[in-house]
Specification:
Number of domains: 2
Helix content: 25-40%
Largest sheet: 3 strands, mixed
Order of helices and strands: EEEEHEEHEEEHHEHHHH
Structural class: alpha+beta
Oligomer: single chain
Shape: globular
Distance between the termini: 40 Å
Strand content: 15-25%
Strand order of the largest sheet: 5-6-10
Number of helices: 8
Number of strands: 10
Length: 270
Amino acid sequence: MSDQVESSIFVDNPSDYMEISLKDTESIELRESNTMPAYGSDEWDDFVMSRFKKGEVFSMPNGKPTVSCAGLRRVAEELLGDIVVSRPSQVFPAMDVDGPGRATVVFEVTIDWFNSGRMRTFSDVADVWHGNTDDLFCAHPVATASTRAEGRALRKALRIKCLAAEELAKKDVASIVRMSVETSKKTQISQEGDWDVESKISEVQINFIDTKCKQADIDVTKFLNMGKEPIEDITKVSKQKALKMIEHLNTIQSGKGDKTDLGKYNPNWR
């Protein structure tokens, strides 16, 4: 969607009553002493950052600024218009019963663009797990992921380069990820002797296929039967075939695979 806005709005304060023409090539004169540069222009980022108050801006270890989600909300409404919708559009809660697990949230923000009556929606996604989130917030993975995703959507709307404070963690995330990868490799190697490609699909694989189909919004039964041989009972599928199914689901979820005629996700497929 084009960023150009060809409409007129009126300042709510009667003392500042004036008609404002909104065009990408023009600045918006809010008051004689306060000029707002064109949205997305070279001066825009610095201008937006100047609108944050003390307590909304923090410094990262590298000296770069980061801003709070609450500050992003306030500045977005101050500069871009009223926020008319602010909500999670998709929630994928943690599935791990033995710990906080990983939660993923897609959040959308709809703004009455410069209060002109024209609506623009911005959305983004964020996930939370013990490796990228401080322990206090990791205890509430869905809520934390929601706040992170909201901050990312607001950053996108404001077109600023800095991160939201809620996206960061005090943990050494890179080291934790490397350790997690190494642990996964060791576990896989230790289990190779017990792996039988002809053995039946595991409950973990079934749950993973269900989760992937839900994320991609496709019907599990139709996905299972998209091959030459119909599958009436998923528990009869081999582990090897289950692996190929998961690989194909990853391809679909990445946008590289075709999900035409696969319908919509139905939680009652079993």
